[in-house]
Amino acid sequence: MAISNAAPVENVDNVVPLEIANCINRLTPLVNTTDPKKVPGLGTPEDVYVYCLQQFLWRSDMVRWEDYNITKKDKDFVNGLIDSNGQYDMFASLHDGVSNSAHNGPNFLGWHRVYLALLEEAMRNIDNTVSLPYWDSSLDNEMANPANTIVFSKEFFGNGDGEVITGPFANWDTHHGPLTRNIAGEGQLFSKENITTVLTRCNTAEITRPTALQPCDFERYHGGPHNWVGGQMMGLTTSSHDPVFFLHHAFVDYIWEKFRYGQLLCKPPVDPEVYPPADGLHAETNPMDGFPRYINIDGYRNYWTQNWYKYEDSPRCPICGSKYLKCDKVKRWCVPIERKLTRKEGYIVNGTFMTDAADTAISESAAEARAAVEKLDIGKKFDAPDDDYRTQRAQLARMAVGPNGRSGPRGKRTF
Ligand SMILES: [Cu+2]
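^ Those are the sequences you sent over. The predicted structure of the assembly is below.
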C-alpha cells in the first residue's frame, strides 16, 4: 500500500487523472463564495475532493455485468489512485461520503465488497503477488488480554496506543488528523459466538438491517472492532483512513462469504444473490453510491467470489501455520502471541510488572492514547455491542463504582 502523507488538495494535477484535477481546481476556489457555479453542499475543499472523485470514478466505458469484468479504463483509474502520494487518502475519502448508503441496510455488505475488490485490484497493479489480507479479530479476542496482541506492533499494523509511529503506516497524516488509535479503549472484537450466531441463519434479511433478528445483527457486530481500535477507526466518516479498516472489512466479507456458502446448505437451499427487501438508498436497484455504474444488487452477485477472489480459511488448531500464532490447547483455538510490552503499557503491583486485562486502563500508555484520541474530530461512532469487560472504558467504570457498588478506590481484581 502506498504511503500517503501529502496534503492531497495541493498539486492535484500531479496525482489524479486530469478530469478530476480539473474538477477540483474549478470548484475549490468557489467553496467560500456565493458564486452561482458553486455546487450546493460543498463547504470545504475536502467536500470538493470527494465530490469530484465520485463524479468521475466510473465515468468511462460502460461497465456491463454480462462482461463480468470491470473495464480496463476503470481499473487504471483506481490503480492510479493508489500508487503515489495522497492517493490512498482519495480512495479512503470515498467511504467518508457514503455513511448512509453503505451502512444501516443490506447494501452494507455489497458496497464494502466492491470497495475491497477495487482496492485489492489497485494494489495488485503495483505488485501482482499481493492479496488483501483479513484480520480475524476473533483470534485476538481469545487472548487473556487482546490489547497485548502482536498485530498491533511494528511487524503488522503498527502501534495501537496513540499516534501511530511504528510499522508500515508510521506517521501517516490523514484527512482527519494524524493516524491515531487507542486499542481496547471501548467496543469489542468479533467473538466466535457472535460469528456462529450470524452463521446459523439462512436468509440475508435475518442478518442485515433493518430486518436483522436481534442476536444476528451482523452490521452491529462489525461496529465492535471499529470502536475497539479507536481513533479514526471509530468514526463512520473517518474509519477508512486507518488501513486496518480494509483488513477488518475483509474479515467481515469473509464471514459473509461463509454465510453465503451456508445458504446453499440450508434446507431448502437459499440463493445468496437474493437481495433483502429495502427502500431508498438501500434498494436493490439504487445506483451504488460512489460507484454509479453499479446498482446495489451487483454487490451480491456470485461473480465476485467466483471470478475475482477467494478466501483462505482462518487457521485452526493444531496447525496454526504462523510463528505469530500459537494453539491454545485448552480452548483449541489459534491465538496470537503477545508483542513485547513496554513499561508504559503495564503497571506495577507489589513491585511486579503486570499487563493483564484488569487494569491496563491505568497504564501510562493507555492514558496517553485516550488523550491523543480526544484531540480528533471523528464524528458519529459506529453502533456496536456493549463494551468488552477488558476495555479501558469498562475498567474505568468498575473503578469508579468500586467492587461493592460504592465509588472509591479500586478493589480486588475479579478476573
Ligand atoms: Cu466498517
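The pocket of copper (II) ion is lined by residues 222, 226, 239, 249 (CB under 6 Å). Confidence is low (pLDDT under 50) at residues 1-15, 57-74, 408-415.

Shout if you want it in another format.
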